[in-house]
Design a protein that fits this description.
The chain has helices at about 5-10, 20-40, 40-45, 55-80, 85-95, 110-130, 140-165, 170-190, 200-205, 215-230, 255-265, 270-285, 285-304, and strands at about 240-245, 250. The protein is mainly α. A two-stranded antiparallel sheet has the order 1-2. The protein is globular and about 70 Å long. It binds acetyl coenzyme *A.
Length: about 300
């Protein structure tokens, strides 16, 4: 079926189908950025695996961080169906030519940050990614189904960490509040620039890659999160946050988008560390890739 007819009928575009070059390029850009985010996103939380406050917390956190690795691998596989090479995508990440989510350039200073990441960052990721399950590109949409199920578990575990801290000692409550204070605004920035400053949105929505605009999803996240903060007994650090009866949504304060642009440009608190760590891990893992390639070649020779 022709590309336009597929889109008009809300069908899925599959790797074998004809598609415009620009559609393919946009998908590679977004899926690669998404994959890189999952992989770099292992670092802030991985920082706490050895210091999780109990065996149970440690087991949960390890499972969660491994899930993120799995998501990254799924997404690289989805990108490869578009004819790109994973090694090349990694090279582009390592040399700063492809982006990853701004949120992973903030430090995890306390154990409560692991809770805030689960609750707010994975919560925002779910709001952004559930509509991607209906993305027009089949392999990306299908990958998102399982990713979203796992993200729901991640979000719940973050909420539960914060709930425990918020109902603990005054010092634990303060630690939880401090984490939320630091992560709230960066979590809102995850949805990207405002709609009138988002160069890719209109075309991506016309192609059915994005189903909702950055601002629509950001609003949905705020509306969803406010009652959860109340249930936690924590406050969101925005004096302008209040319900607007007329709009049927919460109003919220102005986001400092210059911070987002700076972080995306590489000037966030942890950008240099994150990439240096990733490059080091990649180099340390060279022997694994070589061994896997040698094994595959041997099996192929055996089969022949
Ligand atoms: N962090 C880093 N870069 C960003 C961010 C952000 N939070 N928001 C926007 N950008 C970049 C875009 O990638 C784009 O750059 P590019 O054109 O060089 O690729 C530029 O800023 C302008 O933004 P938009 O025109 O709004 O870009 P787009 O239409 O791609 O929307 C969005 C951005 C919403 C992030 C979209 O790409 C998306 O939904 N991606 C899939 C989800 C994802 O990547 N999540 C990662 C974090 S969640 C997690 O891993 C737990």
């Amino acid at each position: 079926m022709r590309f336009e007819d597929l889109l008009a009928g809300d069908g899925r575009v599959e790797p074998r189908d004809e598609m415009p070059d620009a559609y393919r390029r946009t998908l590679v850009r977004q899926i690669a950025q998404h994959a890189h985010s999952e992989i770099i996103g292992m670092q802030p939380e991985g920082n706490w695996i050895s210091r999780a406050p109990s065996l149970r917390r440690k087991a949960i956190l390890m499972a969660k961080v491994q899930d993120e690795a799995g998501h990254g691998l799924y997404l690289y596989a989805a990108a490869e169906t578009l004819g790109v090479d994973r090694a090349d995508l990694l090279d582009q990440l390592h040399t700063g030519r492809q982006k990853y989510s701004s949120i992973f350039n903030y430090p995890t200073l306390t154990w409560a940050d692991v809770g805030a990441i689960g609750w707010l960052v994975d919560g925002a990721a779910i709001v952004n990614q559930v509509p991607l399950c209906r993305c027009s590109y089949g392999p990306y949409a299908r990958a998102m189904v399982r990713v979203c199920k796992e993200e729901s578990f991640h979000q719940r575990q973050g909420f539960e960490i914060l709930h425990t801290l918020a109902h603990g000692s005054p010092a634990q409550h303060a630690m939880a509040q401090d984490a939320v204070d630091r992560y709230w605004w960066p979590a809102l920035m995850m949805f990207g620039p405002p709609d009138d400053d988002s160069p890719n949105s209109a075309q991506s929505m016309a192609w059915g890659i994005k189903r909702f605009s950055n601002d629509e999803l950001r609003q949905r996240f705020v509306d969803m999160t406010v009652p959860q903060a109340e249930a936690l007994g924590l406050t969101l650090p925005d004096p302008d946050l209040r319900w607007n009866d007329e709009r049927g949504h919460h109003d919220f304060g102005e986001i400092d988008f210059t911070e987002l642009y700076e972080v995306v440009r590489g000037n966030g608190p942890c950008n240099a560390d994150r990439i240096a760590h990733k490059v080091r891990a990649h180099e340390d893992g060279a022997w694994v890739r070589e061994a896997a390639a040698a094994y595959a070649a041997k099996r192929e020779a055996g089969a022949a």
